[in-house]
Automatic annotation (TrEMBL):
Name used for this protein in its record: Alanine racemase
Signal peptide range in chain numbering: none
Needed co-factor(s): pyridoxal 5'-phosphate
Pfam families, per the entry: Beta_elim_lyase
Residues with the N6-(pyridoxal phosphate)lysine modification: 215
InterPro entries: ArAA_b-elim_lyase/Thr_aldolase, Low_specificity_L-TA-like, PyrdxlP-dep_Trfase, PyrdxlP-dep_Trfase_major, PyrdxlP-dep_Trfase_small
Example of a GO cellular component annotation carried by this entry: cytosol
Alphabetic keyword roster: Lyase, Pyridoxal phosphate
Keyword Lyase appears in the UniProt entry: yes
Top-level division of the source organism's lineage: Eukaryota
Amino acid sequence: MSWGDPCRTGTAFDFRTDAITTPSIRQLAAITRATLNDDVFGEDASTTLLEQHVATICGCDAAAFVMSGTMANQLSLAALTSMSRSRPCAVLADSSAHVVNFEAGGLSNLSGAAVQPVQPSNGLYLRAEDIEKHAKLGDNMPWEVCPTAVVSLENTAHGNLIPLRELRGIRDWTAQAGILVHIDGARVWDAVAAGGGSLRDIAACSDAMTLSFAKGIGAPIGAAVVGSSEVIRRVKRLRQSIGGGVRKAGVLAAAAMEAVLENFGPGDVDVCRVIQGGHSAAAEVSNMWTARGGKLLRPTETNMVWLDLAAAGVAAETVSDMASRRGVLLAAPRVVLHHQICADALVSLGQVFDDILAGGVAAVDAADLGVRSKGCVQAM
């Protein structure tokens, strides 16, 4: 049996993403105890329990359980844009955001919204000044300009925290401007574990926030949207319209609930310190790279390390191939840590770093490097 065995599943040697964490035996046991009623009718107790719990720990009126983080984000954005008095309208987001680059054009398909991509002026995350500069506002705008209805933030943003003071500043400004706020909280567990505020603190800065149960805390599948009763009512109707209403959802909700309790805790702050294991491993990997003379593309704050491969003179594909030969999986230039990475995998990764920085890699075309290793956008 592979449940609870990251070595057997390969997760212990996989640095590509924290979405591959192996579900535990406790989650399997929770599935066997799950209720098997119909959630489309709102009658499944396990699903209702999860939704009520997540809403409570985020300080929100309600929550909706959905199948994936992408579904959660797109339903949130569709719900919020449907509340805009200006249609068509636009969603302003970090140009490197997941909702812009890796959700198959869901904004145009489900929300009918234009995207206003903005590069953060600090190179890490959007701030209030960026939003104020680029948002399109006012009844007196030229007719050809699409008004901004929603600001979408990602916390963490590629492993970097958006400070709570910045989130509150954005919330204050958007509230005055009549703009709604969505937070992609796929890794909000990491933000909380790293001191970026409680779940309640962060959710209070949004009109809709998503959480992933499959990233970091290790459930087999699932995500949630939290917000006001009106937002969640719209989310659930939209969920049904795209086939996201699931009849026997309890088996999935029960595993997600157990994952939250065993890897985060029962409240709005991290008490289990499991997630922090991935952060400690990321700090170790960051030090392994820089101690060998490597440079980083972004500061390491949570569970992601971004390698500057152009400075090292090697292409991303070459590094990933080298890692595979050493027995680990890597989607360079991003290295993602999680609590199930094993010590042997870190040793193997150190050997890959030796291969790269000790001059053991064949020269590659400089122009090709610029395209393949300088970006900070990776799928998942």
